[in-house]
Amino acid sequence: MVAGEIAIDRNDPKTFSIHSGRGVLINGGKGRTVNLISEFEHGDVEAQIEFCVPKDSNSGVYFQGRYEVQILDSWGVEHPKYSDCGGIYERWKDNRGYEGHAPRVNASKQPGEWQTFDVIFRAPRFDAVGKKIENARFVKVVHNGKLIHENVEVTGPTRAATYESNEKAYGPLMLQGDHGPVAFRKLRLKSIRLP
Fold first, then answer.
1. What's the DSSP call for residue 54?
2. What pLDDT band is residue 29 in, cutting at 50, 70 and 90?
3. DSSP-assigned beta bridge partners for residue 149
4. 34 touches 46 (CB < 8 A)
């Protein structure tokens, strides 16, 4: 849904109070809705994503619908893991996770404050017959002005991706909508070409 403003609900810190208007995307009053998938498909991209979560909430941004940068209320976490805010989420096979990447530092703000991800993402590369010759890579992820990842390679789609079984040169941005309340504003994507 579209809103004008959101704030932590005074009666329930795990939800938002929602004010009418325009400019903020929110995944409903309960935080349990479908994922939002862009029509725009990207390869290499620079992205700026502004988001807000209430207490204990969870979401994620999936580049090309496949590779997740985690959104989570991680305020106060001393030793962040791949599953904390800014983590590059793990892959999943044979009922176990692997290859998750924790952020270098916890840059999370407290619930209810707007936060930013600034991301440079390099898409996987394919040869003339469609065989993957280079993995996708997060060249840089900056969370609230702090560098949390640099040149992190992902060998395939992370858990709960829209497209888990195949990789391609292009794909949509996916905003996870079914894990708890989350609000987004100022989503900016710029196609680039990296070497």
1. -
2. confident
3. 141
4. no
Cβ 58 vs Cβ 71: under 8 Å? yes
Q: pLDDT tens-digit profile of 33-76?
A: 999 999 999 999 999 999 999 999 999 999 999 999 999 999 99
Mean pLDDT of 76-80: 97
Domain range summary for the chain, segments of one domain joined by +: 38-176+185-191
Q: Specify the pTM.
A: 0.96
Q: How many CB atoms lie within 10 A of CB 34?
A: 10
CATH homologous superfamily for the domain 38-176+185-191: Exo-inulinase; domain 1 (2.60.120.560)
Which of 40, 37, 79, 34 shows the shortest CA–CA distance to 61? 37
> How is the chain split among helix, strand and coil, in percent rounded to 5?
0, 50, 50
